[in-house]
Amino acid sequence: MAGVGLWVRKIRDSLYIRRDIVFMQSAPNKAIPSLYRITRLMLGVFIPILILIGVFNGVRMSSDFEKMINQVEQDVVHSLHLIDDALEILETVFDRQMSDGLNEFMQAYHDAGQSPQDIDLMALKSSFKDTMDVYIINRNGVVEFSTIEQDLGLDLTQWADFHEYLEAIREEGLPVVDRMSRETLTGLFRKYAYYPTPDKEWILELGIKPEVIAEYMTKLDPVQVGRRIALSNDVIDSIRIIDRLGWELSMSSPEQVDASIMDKANQVRETRQSLEFISWNTSTRYILQENRGHMMSFGAPDQVIELVYSRTRLITGIVTNILVTLAGIIVSLVLGYWLKTVEEELRNHAIYDGLTGVFNRRYGMSLLEIEINKASRLNSPLSCLLIDIDNFKKINDSFGHDVGDQVLSKVANELNQTLRAYDVFFRYGGEEFVIVFPGLSLEDAEMCSDRIRQLCAQVSVPVGKDKTIQTTLSAGLVLLNANETSKELLKRADMALYEAKQGGRNLIKIAA
User: Which reaction is the catalytic activity of this chain (predicted)?
Assistant: First the structure.
C-alpha cells in the first residue's frame, strides 16, 4: 500500500507546476494544477486505446491485403512470361531475316569477285529495306567497310572477349546469328549476325537497326505492361523490373535506377529472398523473377521486380476506427490547444517587451550571459552597443507619453530589421536598448553601429497634421575583454555612452 501511495503522489506532483516558474519571478512555492498536463495525460490514455483499435482492425484487414498483393505479383510474373514468349517469336522472325540477309550478303561478295571494296554496300542495305546496317571486318579485326561512317576503322581487338568470339566464328567458317541483347552503355537493344568468307579473310556482319527493334519492343515494353496493371488495380502505385546491370527493364526507353534501389535488388539476388519496406502509406516489395528464356539476354539471368503498393485502403480502415472514438477527445484537444496558447502568451510576456516587441531586460541579460560564455569558450570576439535615444525626456514632456511610446516602438522596429538573425537586441530600460554582436570585431561593430545611428536619424514620428519629430541616438560601443562579466561589460558601455552624451549627442563612442 505504501508503494501505491508513493506512486499516486508522484502522479499528483507531475500534474502541478510552480507559479514562479510560469511567471519567471520569485514567488512562494505555491503549486497550481497544470490543466495542460492533465489534458496531455488524458490524451496519453485515449490515443493508445485508439491505436489498439486500429491495430485490431488492421490485423483483420491485413489478410485480405496480403492476398491481393500475392495476386498482383502472380499477374506481373505471368505478364513477364507472356512477354518472354512474344520475344522468342520476334527472335525467330529476326533470325530468319538475318539468315537470308547473310546469304544475300555472301552472294554479293562473290558477285564482286571476292573483293569487298567492289560491293555496293548502300545498295545492299536498301535491299534489306533499310532495316539492317552492313559491316565488313578484315583479318586484323578492324571494320574496314560499313554503311555507318563513324564505325569505319573501328578496331574490335580492343574488346578482347569479343575479338576472341569473332575469331572463333572466323575459324568455324559458318554463319552465326546472335540473340538480341542490350548494350551496357546505351541501353539500346541490338542483334548482329556474322558470316566468314570462305578464305576467312573477311567477316561479313549485319546489324538490325536499334530503331527497328525498338518499334517492336515498344509494344512488348514491361514498363507499359506494369502501368496497365497499376491502372487496373488501386492497390498498385508502380511496377518496375530491374536487371543486374542496374537498368529498369524497358524495351523502348531504358533508364538506370538509383544506387539505393540497385543495392536492394542485388540483395534480393544474393539472398534469393524477397524484401519489403513499409511506410505509413506505401509498401515497397522486391521479388526475384527467375527468367525462363529470352529475357535472360537483356542484362542478366534474372530480374528483380519492384512493386510499390498503396496502403490507403488498409489505412482507411484504421482511420475509420480512430474517427469513431476521436469525437470523445475533441474537447480535450481544443482545451489542450487553448492552454498551449495561454502558455505561449505567458512565455511571450516573460521574454518580450510589451511596447517595443524586442526582448525585455531580464531575458536579454540571460542571452548576453550565454553569448559571453560562448565567446569565451570559442575565443571569438563579441561587441556590445548600449543605446540611448536623445532628448527622450523632452519628447515625453512636450508631446506626451503616447508620442514617446511611438518613438520607442518605431525606433526599435527599424533597428530590429537591420540586425542579423543571431544578434541580440533587447530593451535595457526606459529609452535605453542593448545590441549584442556575436563574432564581430570592434571595427566591424563600429561600422554596424554607425549604420544604426544613421538609420535612427531617419526615423520620424508625426505629432500633428504637418509636424513630425526626428530622432537621434547616442551609444557606447564596447568589445568584450577576457574574463569580463556582463555587468562589467555594460558598465564600460555606459561610460562610453555618457561620453557620447557629453560630446553633443548623435554620436557613437568606443569604450577604452
Answer: 2 GTP = 3',3'-c-di-GMP + 2 diphosphate
Considering only CA atoms, which of 18, 35, 36 is closest in space to residue 27?
A: 18
Q: Count the alpha carbons within 13 Å of 320 in the hemisphere toward its beta carbon.
A: 10
Q: How confident is the model at residue 495 (pLDDT cuts 50, 70, 90)?
A: very high
Cα dihedral value 259, 265, 271, 274, nearest 10? 130
Q: Residue 331 class from Cβ within 10 Å (0-12 exposed, 13-18 middle, 19+ buried)?
A: exposed
DSSP β-ladder status, 508-510 and 473-479: parallel
d(CA 350, CA 347): 5
DSSP classification of residue 236: E
**Cα dihedral: 122, 126, 131, 136 (round 10):** -30
Of residues 334 and 484, the one with the higher pLDDT is 484
CA distance 451 to 382: 18
Q: Residue 174 corresponds to which amino acid?
A: L
So where are the chain's domains? 39-330, 352-510
Nearest to 44 by CA among 16, 9, 15: 15
DSSP letters for 282-344: EEEEEEEEE--SGGGGSSSSEEEEEEEEE-HHHHHHHHHHHHHHHGGGHHHHHHHHHHHHHHH
Among 478, 479, 500, 384, which Cα is nearest to 435's?
A: 384
Of 72-86, 348-362, 493-507, give the lowest mean pLDDT range: 72-86
What is the DSSP annotation of 29-48? --EEE-HHHHHHHHHHHHHH
| Beta strands 31-33 and 16-18, pairing class | antiparallel
Half-sphere exposure in the Cβ direction for 140 (13 Å, CA): 6
Chain CA centroid to CA 311, Å: 22
- Please, what CATH class does the domain formed by 39-330 belong to? alpha beta
Residue by residue, what is the 3-state secondary structure of 53-120? HHHHHHHHHHHHHHHHHHHHHHHHHHHHHHHHHHHHHHHHHHHHHHHHHHHHHHHHHHHCCCCHHHCC
Prediction pTM value? 0.45
Query: Rounded to a whole number, what is the distance in angstroms from the first to the last CA of the chain?
Result: 69
3-class secondary-structure state, position 53: helix
To the question of domain 352-510 being in CATH 3.40.30.10, the answer is no
For the segment 251-274, the average pLDDT, to the nearest whole number, is 82
Higher per-residue pLDDT: 281 or 48:
281
Contact 383, 440 (CB under 8 A): yes
Residue 237: CB atoms within 10 A of its CB come to 17
Q: Specify whether the CB–CB gap between 240 and 226 falls below 8 A.
A: yes
Choose the weakest-confidence range: 45-59, 176-190, 202-216, 275-289.
45-59
Question: Which residues are CB-neighbours of 275 under 8 A, at least 6 positions away?
Answer: 264, 267, 268, 285, 286
